[in-house]
Design a protein that fits this description.
Largest sheet: 8 strands, mixed
CATH topology of the largest domain: Rossmann fold
Number of strands: 12
Strand order of the largest sheet: 3-4-2-1-5-6-7-8
CATH superfamily of the largest domain: Glycogen Phosphorylase B
CATH class of the largest domain: Alpha Beta
Distance between the termini: 35 Å
CATH architecture of the largest domain: 3-Layer(aba) Sandwich
Number of domains: 2
Helix content: 25-40%
Oligomer: single chain
Radius of gyration: 21 Å
Number of helices: 9
Strand content: 15-25%
Length: 279
Protein backbone atom coordinates (compact mmCIF):
# COMPACT_ATOMS: atom_id res chain seq x y z
CA UNK A 1 0.00 0.00 0.00
CA UNK A 2 1.23 3.48 -0.89
CA UNK A 3 -0.05 6.33 1.28
CA UNK A 4 0.43 10.02 0.60
CA UNK A 5 0.08 12.10 3.75
CA UNK A 6 -0.88 15.73 3.21
CA UNK A 7 -0.36 18.28 5.97
CA UNK A 8 0.13 22.02 5.62
CA UNK A 9 3.07 22.12 8.06
CA UNK A 10 5.52 19.44 9.13
CA UNK A 11 8.82 18.98 10.98
CA UNK A 12 10.77 21.08 11.98
CA UNK A 13 7.60 23.08 12.70
CA UNK A 14 6.33 21.69 16.01
CA UNK A 15 2.67 21.25 16.87
CA UNK A 16 0.15 18.59 17.84
CA UNK A 17 -0.97 17.77 14.29
CA UNK A 18 2.62 17.75 13.03
CA UNK A 19 3.76 15.41 15.82
CA UNK A 20 0.83 13.05 15.26
CA UNK A 21 1.45 12.92 11.51
CA UNK A 22 5.12 12.09 12.05
CA UNK A 23 4.33 9.42 14.64
CA UNK A 24 1.66 7.79 12.47
CA UNK A 25 3.84 7.84 9.34
CA UNK A 26 6.70 6.22 11.26
CA UNK A 27 4.47 3.46 12.63
CA UNK A 28 2.92 2.73 9.22
CA UNK A 29 6.40 2.43 7.67
CA UNK A 30 7.35 -0.04 10.41
CA UNK A 31 4.35 -2.13 9.32
CA UNK A 32 5.54 -2.18 5.71
CA UNK A 33 3.37 0.61 4.33
CA UNK A 34 5.00 3.06 1.91
CA UNK A 35 4.43 6.60 3.19
CA UNK A 36 5.34 9.94 1.66
CA UNK A 37 4.56 13.29 3.28
CA UNK A 38 3.85 16.36 1.19
CA UNK A 39 3.75 19.67 3.04
CA UNK A 40 4.40 23.38 2.62
CA UNK A 41 7.86 24.92 2.27
CA UNK A 42 7.35 27.51 5.03
CA UNK A 43 10.89 27.77 6.43
CA UNK A 44 13.51 29.09 4.04
CA UNK A 45 16.46 27.09 5.42
CA UNK A 46 14.74 23.71 5.27
CA UNK A 47 15.51 21.43 2.29
CA UNK A 48 12.92 20.87 -0.44
CA UNK A 49 13.30 17.12 -0.05
CA UNK A 50 14.55 15.15 2.92
CA UNK A 51 14.10 11.94 4.88
CA UNK A 52 13.04 12.16 8.53
CA UNK A 53 12.99 8.92 10.57
CA UNK A 54 12.59 6.99 7.32
CA UNK A 55 9.74 9.25 6.11
CA UNK A 56 10.19 10.80 2.68
CA UNK A 57 9.18 14.48 2.91
CA UNK A 58 8.56 16.87 0.02
CA UNK A 59 7.87 20.58 0.59
CA UNK A 60 5.71 22.37 -1.95
CA UNK A 61 6.49 25.92 -3.01
CA UNK A 62 4.76 28.64 -0.95
CA UNK A 63 6.33 31.63 -2.70
CA UNK A 64 7.14 34.45 -0.26
CA UNK A 65 5.34 32.60 2.54
CA UNK A 66 8.62 30.93 3.51
CA UNK A 67 10.15 34.28 4.47
CA UNK A 68 7.51 34.87 7.15
CA UNK A 69 6.75 38.38 5.92
CA UNK A 70 3.62 39.75 7.57
CA UNK A 71 0.72 40.06 5.17
CA UNK A 72 2.38 37.88 2.54
CA UNK A 73 1.87 34.46 4.15
CA UNK A 74 -1.74 34.38 2.94
CA UNK A 75 -0.42 34.50 -0.64
CA UNK A 76 1.97 31.73 0.33
CA UNK A 77 -1.11 29.69 1.22
CA UNK A 78 -2.59 30.35 -2.22
CA UNK A 79 0.64 29.28 -3.95
CA UNK A 80 0.75 26.20 -1.71
CA UNK A 81 -2.77 25.20 -2.78
CA UNK A 82 -1.78 25.50 -6.44
CA UNK A 83 1.52 23.63 -5.99
CA UNK A 84 -0.24 20.89 -3.99
CA UNK A 85 -2.74 20.36 -6.81
CA UNK A 86 0.09 20.14 -9.34
CA UNK A 87 1.97 17.67 -7.10
CA UNK A 88 -1.07 15.41 -6.79
CA UNK A 89 -1.45 15.30 -10.58
CA UNK A 90 2.23 14.86 -11.47
CA UNK A 91 2.86 12.14 -8.86
CA UNK A 92 -0.48 10.36 -9.20
CA UNK A 93 1.15 6.97 -9.88
CA UNK A 94 3.21 7.10 -6.67
CA UNK A 95 0.32 6.78 -4.20
CA UNK A 96 -2.91 4.83 -3.79
CA UNK A 97 -4.53 6.57 -0.82
CA UNK A 98 -4.47 10.21 0.28
CA UNK A 99 -4.46 10.76 4.03
CA UNK A 100 -4.94 14.43 4.95
CA UNK A 101 -4.29 15.83 8.42
CA UNK A 102 -6.81 18.56 9.37
CA UNK A 103 -10.06 19.44 7.60
CA UNK A 104 -8.64 22.62 6.09
CA UNK A 105 -7.82 23.91 2.60
CA UNK A 106 -5.20 21.18 1.84
CA UNK A 107 -8.01 18.66 2.40
CA UNK A 108 -10.17 20.52 -0.11
CA UNK A 109 -7.40 20.51 -2.73
CA UNK A 110 -6.75 16.81 -2.04
CA UNK A 111 -10.43 15.98 -2.50
CA UNK A 112 -10.78 18.19 -5.58
CA UNK A 113 -7.75 16.78 -7.43
CA UNK A 114 -7.20 13.41 -5.75
CA UNK A 115 -10.82 12.28 -5.55
CA UNK A 116 -12.55 14.43 -8.15
CA UNK A 117 -10.01 14.09 -10.98
CA UNK A 118 -7.93 11.04 -10.11
CA UNK A 119 -10.56 8.96 -8.27
CA UNK A 120 -8.21 8.21 -5.38
CA UNK A 121 -9.73 7.46 -1.95
CA UNK A 122 -9.32 10.40 0.44
CA UNK A 123 -9.22 9.98 4.22
CA UNK A 124 -9.20 13.15 6.34
CA UNK A 125 -8.32 13.41 10.02
CA UNK A 126 -9.95 16.21 11.99
CA UNK A 127 -7.52 17.77 14.46
CA UNK A 128 -9.83 19.46 16.95
CA UNK A 129 -13.38 20.28 17.98
CA UNK A 130 -15.26 22.92 19.90
CA UNK A 131 -14.19 26.57 19.79
CA UNK A 132 -11.08 25.80 17.73
CA UNK A 133 -12.54 23.07 15.53
CA UNK A 134 -11.37 22.53 11.97
CA UNK A 135 -14.93 23.34 10.91
CA UNK A 136 -14.85 26.83 12.45
CA UNK A 137 -11.32 27.49 11.21
CA UNK A 138 -12.05 26.45 7.61
CA UNK A 139 -15.22 28.55 7.55
CA UNK A 140 -13.07 31.63 8.24
CA UNK A 141 -10.97 31.03 5.10
CA UNK A 142 -11.98 32.71 1.81
CA UNK A 143 -14.65 30.45 0.25
CA UNK A 144 -14.22 28.22 3.29
CA UNK A 145 -17.91 27.34 3.55
CA UNK A 146 -17.91 26.14 -0.06
CA UNK A 147 -14.76 24.12 0.58
CA UNK A 148 -16.35 22.50 3.64
CA UNK A 149 -19.52 21.68 1.71
CA UNK A 150 -17.45 19.99 -1.01
CA UNK A 151 -15.44 18.01 1.57
CA UNK A 152 -18.55 16.76 3.33
CA UNK A 153 -19.70 15.40 -0.02
CA UNK A 154 -16.42 13.92 -1.27
CA UNK A 155 -14.46 12.60 1.75
CA UNK A 156 -14.41 8.80 1.82
CA UNK A 157 -13.68 8.65 5.52
CA UNK A 158 -13.32 11.09 8.41
CA UNK A 159 -11.17 10.26 11.42
CA UNK A 160 -12.15 12.20 14.52
CA UNK A 161 -9.99 12.26 17.66
CA UNK A 162 -13.02 12.63 19.96
CA UNK A 163 -16.71 11.81 20.21
CA UNK A 164 -17.44 15.54 20.33
CA UNK A 165 -15.73 15.96 16.98
CA UNK A 166 -17.72 13.07 15.51
CA UNK A 167 -20.98 14.68 16.63
CA UNK A 168 -20.01 17.99 15.00
CA UNK A 169 -19.60 16.35 11.61
CA UNK A 170 -22.80 14.34 11.97
CA UNK A 171 -24.68 17.58 12.63
CA UNK A 172 -23.14 18.98 9.43
CA UNK A 173 -24.69 16.09 7.52
CA UNK A 174 -21.65 13.82 7.09
CA UNK A 175 -22.73 10.13 7.22
CA UNK A 176 -22.06 8.44 10.55
CA UNK A 177 -21.05 5.27 8.68
CA UNK A 178 -18.00 7.10 7.30
CA UNK A 179 -16.81 8.50 10.64
CA UNK A 180 -14.23 6.67 12.74
CA UNK A 181 -13.29 7.93 16.20
CA UNK A 182 -9.60 7.25 16.98
CA UNK A 183 -8.02 9.22 19.86
CA UNK A 184 -4.49 10.48 19.27
CA UNK A 185 -1.81 7.96 20.09
CA UNK A 186 0.95 8.56 22.60
CA UNK A 187 4.52 7.30 22.33
CA UNK A 188 5.50 5.93 25.75
CA UNK A 189 9.02 6.98 26.69
CA UNK A 190 11.41 4.47 28.25
CA UNK A 191 13.79 5.26 31.06
CA UNK A 192 11.28 7.28 33.09
CA UNK A 193 11.66 7.95 36.79
CA UNK A 194 11.29 4.82 38.90
CA UNK A 195 10.06 6.51 42.07
CA UNK A 196 8.01 9.60 42.84
CA UNK A 197 8.12 11.29 46.21
CA UNK A 198 7.18 14.89 46.73
CA UNK A 199 5.96 16.70 43.63
CA UNK A 200 8.56 19.36 42.81
CA UNK A 201 8.85 19.61 39.03
CA UNK A 202 5.58 20.10 37.15
CA UNK A 203 5.57 20.33 33.35
CA UNK A 204 3.06 21.16 30.66
CA UNK A 205 3.51 21.47 26.90
CA UNK A 206 1.16 23.78 25.04
CA UNK A 207 0.66 26.47 22.46
CA UNK A 208 0.10 29.68 24.39
CA UNK A 209 -3.32 30.52 22.99
CA UNK A 210 -6.76 31.05 24.48
CA UNK A 211 -8.22 27.61 23.88
CA UNK A 212 -5.39 25.87 25.78
CA UNK A 213 -6.43 27.34 29.14
CA UNK A 214 -2.97 28.15 30.47
CA UNK A 215 -4.53 31.09 32.34
CA UNK A 216 -6.62 28.58 34.30
CA UNK A 217 -3.48 26.58 35.10
CA UNK A 218 -1.69 29.69 36.39
CA UNK A 219 -4.61 30.62 38.65
CA UNK A 220 -4.66 27.06 40.01
CA UNK A 221 -0.88 27.20 40.44
CA UNK A 222 -1.25 30.27 42.66
CA UNK A 223 -3.38 28.14 45.01
CA UNK A 224 -0.78 25.35 44.92
CA UNK A 225 1.87 27.87 46.01
CA UNK A 226 -0.16 28.64 49.13
CA UNK A 227 0.51 25.07 50.30
CA UNK A 228 3.78 24.09 48.61
CA UNK A 229 6.25 26.85 47.81
CA UNK A 230 8.98 24.41 46.75
CA UNK A 231 7.27 23.25 43.53
CA UNK A 232 8.17 24.65 40.10
CA UNK A 233 6.03 24.88 36.97
CA UNK A 234 7.64 24.67 33.52
CA UNK A 235 5.50 25.76 30.58
CA UNK A 236 6.97 24.47 27.30
CA UNK A 237 5.74 26.28 24.22
CA UNK A 238 5.03 29.68 22.74
CA UNK A 239 2.14 31.56 21.21
CA UNK A 240 0.21 34.82 20.93
CA UNK A 241 -0.58 35.00 24.67
CA UNK A 242 3.03 34.77 25.88
CA UNK A 243 3.17 38.36 27.15
CA UNK A 244 -0.34 38.29 28.59
CA UNK A 245 0.34 35.06 30.50
CA UNK A 246 3.63 36.45 31.80
CA UNK A 247 1.78 39.49 33.13
CA UNK A 248 -0.81 37.21 34.73
CA UNK A 249 1.98 35.36 36.54
CA UNK A 250 3.24 38.67 37.90
CA UNK A 251 -0.20 39.76 39.09
CA UNK A 252 -0.67 36.39 40.83
CA UNK A 253 2.75 36.68 42.50
CA UNK A 254 4.03 33.35 41.15
CA UNK A 255 6.84 34.43 38.81
CA UNK A 256 9.52 32.79 40.98
CA UNK A 257 7.88 29.39 40.62
CA UNK A 258 6.86 29.58 36.94
CA UNK A 259 9.14 29.46 33.89
CA UNK A 260 8.17 29.93 30.25
CA UNK A 261 10.74 28.10 28.12
CA UNK A 262 9.52 29.03 24.64
CA UNK A 263 9.46 26.44 21.85
CA UNK A 264 11.23 23.18 22.72
CA UNK A 265 11.89 20.83 19.80
CA UNK A 266 12.38 17.73 21.96
CA UNK A 267 10.46 17.70 25.25
CA UNK A 268 11.48 14.15 26.23
CA UNK A 269 14.18 15.23 28.70
CA UNK A 270 11.80 17.62 30.45
CA UNK A 271 9.18 14.87 30.72
CA UNK A 272 11.69 12.42 32.18
CA UNK A 273 12.62 14.88 34.91
CA UNK A 274 9.04 15.85 35.72
CA UNK A 275 7.21 14.61 38.83
CA UNK A 276 3.85 15.60 37.35
CA UNK A 277 2.62 16.35 33.83
CA UNK A 278 -0.38 18.62 33.30
CA UNK A 279 -2.45 17.93 30.18
Amino acid sequence: MKVLMVISQFHPIVGGAEKQAQLLAKKLIEKGVEVDVVTGWWLFKTPRREKIEGIRVFRNFTCWGMFGIKGIRIWGGVFYMVSLGVYLLVHRRKYEIIHVHQVLYPAFISALFGKGLLHKPVLVKSASSGLTSDIKLLQRFPFGRLQLKYLLKEMDCLVSVSQMGSEEYKKMGFPESRIVCIPNGVSIQTGSKATYGQVINVVTTSRLSKEKGIDVLLKAWAKVMEQNEDSRLLILGDGPLRTELGNLSKSLGITKSVAFTGIIRDVSEYLREADLFVL
